[in-house]
Amino acid sequence: MSSTDRQNRLLLAEDWKRIYQSYRNADFKNYDFDNLRRTMINYLRDNYPEDFNDYIESSEYIALVDLIAYLGQNLAFRIDLNARENFLELAERRESILRLARLVNYTPKRNISASGLLKISSVSSTEDIIDTNNNNLRDQTIIWNDPTNSNWYEQFIKILNRAFTETENFGKPVQKDTIDNVTTERYRIRTSSATSVPIFPFTRFIDGNNIKCEIVSTMLNQNITEEPPLPGNNFSILYRNDSQGAGSSSTGFFVLFKQGTLDQGTFNITNAVPNQIVSIDAANINNDDVWLYSLNTDLTFDRLWTKVDAIEGNNIIYNSLNKNVRDIYTVLTRLDDKISFVFSDGVFGNLPVGSFQTYFRASRNDNIVIKPRDLTGVSISVPYTSVVGKEETLNFTFELLYTVDNAVPAESNASIKQNAPATYYTQNRLITAEDYQIGLLNVNQEIVKTKSVNRIASGISRYFDLTDSTGKYSKTNLFGLDGILYRENYLTTQNFTFSTKTDIEGIIANIIEPIIASDYISNFYFNEYTKIDVSDLNIFWYQSTSDTNLNTGYFENENNIKQMIGNKSDGILKNLTAGCSVKFIAPTGKHFMADNSHTLMTGAVDHANAVTYKWVKVISINDNGIIVAADGTGPVMLNDIIPTGAKLSVILPSIPKVLTSDVQTNIIDQAYANLTFGLRFDRDLRQWRLITEANLDVVNSFSVGKTGDNSNQKLDSSWILKFTTDNEKYTITTRASRYIFESEKEIRFYYDDTDKIYNNKTGKIVKDKITILNNNNKPGSLDKFTIDFDWQVTAQFRDAGGYVNTSKIQVYFFDSDDDGVVDNPEIFEEIIGPLNSTKLIFQKKLLTTDGVEDYNYVDNVIENIKIFQNKASVGALSVYDDGQKFYYIEEDIFETFNKTTTTLTLTSDYKAFYGRDKIRFQYVHAADDNSRIDPSVTNIIDTYLLTRSYDKSFRQYLNGVSTSKPLPASSDSLFVQFGSSVNNIKSLTDEIIYHSAKYRILFGNKADTNLQASLKIVKNPDLVLDNNEIKTSAVNKINQYFALENWEFGETFYFSELSAYIMQQLAPTIVTIVLVPLQANQSFGSLYEIKSETDEIFISGITVDDINIIDAVTASRLNSTGSVVTNTGYINTGIQSAASVTSTTSTASNYSSALVSGTTSAVNTTTSTSTSSSASSSSSGSSSSSGSSSSSGSSSSSGY
């Protein structure tokens, strides 16, 4: 077969090209009018320059070209359209989607009519009926449970008994069953008409529309259903008794009503043909109410044919019906909810022949909600024949006692596209966990979202902790002795295209800013930029006030002179600004304690928790940093307590995660002009700046020596992002670093970056971590560390083939308080030590079972690679054995010695990294408390359902259409509505407990008081904008963000994500947006992270009244005092939801000899960037995961 494929590709394709070689100059990729016209004219000019040269627009030949181009565009459009309509994911036409769904045996659901029970509130009869008190009840209205009539019950029953058939007087029902725990009896009335179906229509005005309904005859079949319509049938009503007395809403006489109009049609089949299809052209036929009768030769009714249920695995040939039932058909859904009858092939069922009559109900294709007030005082007259043969009339008055919200519109195109493959996957059964997540959506289109959780196994409590060795379902706490930690420098590439400047704005928000906000950019910054050493200034910290993880004070020099810092300072202390990290060291002879004792201790640093330094973050600086407030609060606030006398040693400015507006403008201009350019970080300005092509050095390794050079000599090699173009697409090349931790043999790592484990007690995300233990030796010493070093796990490690390598894991500097500033940016150097020949780890190339080249750790004690600073220092080669491997640090290459030829040959079989091996470590993996292994075959499944009617009514409540907050459906009502359908497809060993999902409102005055907040928006001062228009646009974007399809049960809301989306959508209209709680005990920063319950889905309650347009972000406007609240006290027991993740594909590189990496052999890896949940605001162009509508992006890998 491979030879056939090869020949088809190489030979037949070549022959096809030869046939069309005369058209080699034509551009067949262009099929729009303008390009077709241009292509044909160019073709004429190139091939017939002498024969045709009349190119003026008025020429009749140009008119012909225009006509051909017009026809070509139309044909191309139709071909494209038809091609798209052949795939379910791409099809747009309803008819195409219906046909494609049928290919996987999926029958799209038509509308479901609203239906419910009406209670008979009063009855009267035209017949002479005498009660026990000798009262004639003729034309007397008897009210059910009438407190003014002590004899109401006897009179009510007497009137009905006179209309019931002789054998079915009250107490002798024709059917009896228990429905929804209520005893239900069926009685028939002697309807007088022998030629009509006992249907009684009525019309009511509901929500501005005239809604047609019908009272129908009922029957009991495990549920209350409509009796198949048949002329001459007796009209049936129900009596129900819940044993709660006559005043109960579930006790009394009831009738079934349905929304819609019953219609009928006849057809004749003269020839018995297999697989006969008969179409019914009435529109909006609902999903359930279709009946088919065969007729005798005199057109009287013969028998009712059996409809094959339209479920997965059932069709006219293969179905679950008894083999003796041969008069069968199935219903095919067509456009506009029209139907077709599909009959059998004559083998598995009878062929239809003769006359047929069908009944069907056309219902309103809408999610109608009928409330009790809509159906009060409904009256109908039912003719019946008395026992003496006289025509009489029963007059009924009905009332609705509950809200009917079970109407469902026809399945949408999007729903069909989603459900058809899912139904095919589940095969109409609920067995696996995945089946329960998607299979229930196919049961009824009233279900719009579902989640199922296996709560318990038979005989085993959920609190009995069974251990999962993989760590997927169980917490893991393991220790190892073979840890390897190393740093890898690499390049990532990402492509994008654009058409307009607006597209480039989207690229900035969706691609560029997520890159500069990523962990791997932070790693690169920590590695390549020297930290600002100020220890020689002899500046010390003086504490003013302290609180839990909070410290205020100021700086003085050794002469006790207060030091101005930040923007007010002209010296090096200008870099000491809010948001930066600073390192304090203990004075000579003293040390800090890492156990939060917050004091300076005298003595040697040789015992547990003793350290010579502390890293903290500067939270804020008041003015110039020297003025102490009247209440004693210092001008500088730190996020940890530093004792007085600690010496300022290092300043590390933070790297911004957004671009300034002027840089964004520069990027737009450069990209729109198709120019090469770069982005660098200016530490002095603490901003990203653009490097033009005339100054961009794309040859040399990274260096800040010429950063900001404007000599137009291409000397600036300090770029971190490089933008190059081939005039079709742009490629972003990013210099990056990452840290890898590996266990050679002992530990295998499990990490799911989409599963965030939430700690209810601390209100924080529980992070997986690697701890370098303090019983490891310090670099180049026999002394042990005095503290542990924590690294947070950030991503799985993927090998060159893209598969997860469980022996490795990506780690990042730990950020214990999730403030976006790492706890200690120097721990890697502290663990590894200065770079030298002993600080290298090696990896050797191997070929995986999949044929992919990969590199694995090798112990150099065994491999015996000779390490030299450079190649010149090798010396005489004669002393080395044949095959000896050499590594040169400066050149960053490997060579192999050939003793026979006394030559060295370059090899790419190895890589070298700056790192350390044989590390003692602890691996801690967090798992959801709700996850348990199930050793049994019997399960209790908690199933959470969000119904369409609840969704609609809740949104009406938010929009002010209704004033009362709708309540979710009860478990019983969900069971009644869906239980019978679900029971048909679930496993016999599973028990399903139904829970109604509910919405949790965020913000706005309809939210809980502790969740109410307002939005502060700063609009773009450079644009003339209407405030109301901005507010309306913001509300629309927020509603889009909270659209149902974007959220799952139990997810966590992050305002940083919302603000990024709003900025991406509304920039440059607005420049920043912040969230401000309304409660006095909540300050700015509260509500930036909110966790929902297992059965909750977030929805926005914000309106234009909750949005304020301000001209600047100030403390007073942000309510930036008080305690910060990120948890509202709910106890979460649900599955943790996924957070947004952005990935790019990367390749190992050796762009800097100072940072040792591998050879130029490529190794594909994956880096992840997680959206920070603690950002306090979002500026124009904040990162988002959504792309611009006109732009596209892709990722690729390349060597450097």
Query: What is the strand content?
Result: 25-35%
Overall 3D form = elongated
SSE-based structural type = alpha+beta
Rg measurement, Å: 39 Å
Overall strand count: 62
- The end-to-end distance, rounded to whole angstroms, is 39 Å
Q: How many strands, what sense, and barrel or not for the largest sheet? A: 10 strands, antiparallel
Describe this structure in words.
- With 1200 residues, this protein is an alpha+beta fold.
- It is built from 17 helices and 62 strands.
- The strands form 13 sheets. Strands 1, 2, 3, 4, 5, 6, 9, 10, 19 and 20 form a ten-stranded antiparallel β-sheet that branches.
- Helix 8 packs across helix 10 (661-672).
- The longest helix has 25 residues, at 60-84.
- It starts with a helix and ends with a strand.
Topology:
Elements: H1 2-19, H2 33-47, H3 60-84, H4 94-103, E1 115-125, E2 142-143, H5 152-163, E3 175-179, E4 182-189, E5 200-206, E6 209-216, E7 218-220, E8 224-226, E9 235-241, E10 252-259, E11 261-269, E12 277-280, E13 285-295, E14 301-304, E15 306-307, E16 328-333, E17 339-343, E18 354-362, E19 376-385, E20 391-399, H6 413-426, H7 433-438, E21 447-457, E22 476-497, H8 501-516, H9 519-528, E23 532-533, E24 539-547, E25 550-557, E26 581-585, E27 590-593, E28 601-602, E29 610-611, E30 613-621, E31 636-638, E32 647-652, H10 661-672, E33 677-682, E34 687-692, E35 721-725, E36 730-743, E37 757-759, E38 764-766, E39 769-772, E40 789-798, E41 804-813, H11 827-832, E42 840-847, E43 853-858, H12 860-863, E44 866-868, E45 885-888, E46 893-898, E47 903-907, E48 910-925, E49 939-947, H13 948-958, H14 971-983, E50 990-996, E51 998-1002, E52 1013-1019, H15 1027-1041, E53 1052-1054, H16 1055-1066, E54 1070-1077, E55 1084-1087, E56 1089-1091, E57 1096-1100, E58 1107-1110, H17 1115-1118, E59 1141-1148, E60 1164-1170, E61 1178-1179, E62 1192-1196
Parallel strand pairs: 15-16, 44-45, 49-50, 51-57, 52-58
Antiparallel strand pairs: 1-2, 1-10, 1-20, 3-4, 4-9, 5-6, 6-10, 7-8, 9-10, 11-18, 12-17, 13-14, 13-18, 16-17, 19-20, 21-49, 22-36, 22-48, 22-59, 22-62, 23-32, 24-25, 25-31, 26-30, 26-32, 27-28, 27-29, 30-31, 33-34, 33-35, 35-36, 36-41, 37-38, 39-40, 39-48, 40-41, 42-43, 42-48, 45-46, 46-47, ...
Helix pairs in contact: 2-3, 4-6, 8-10, 8-16, 15-16
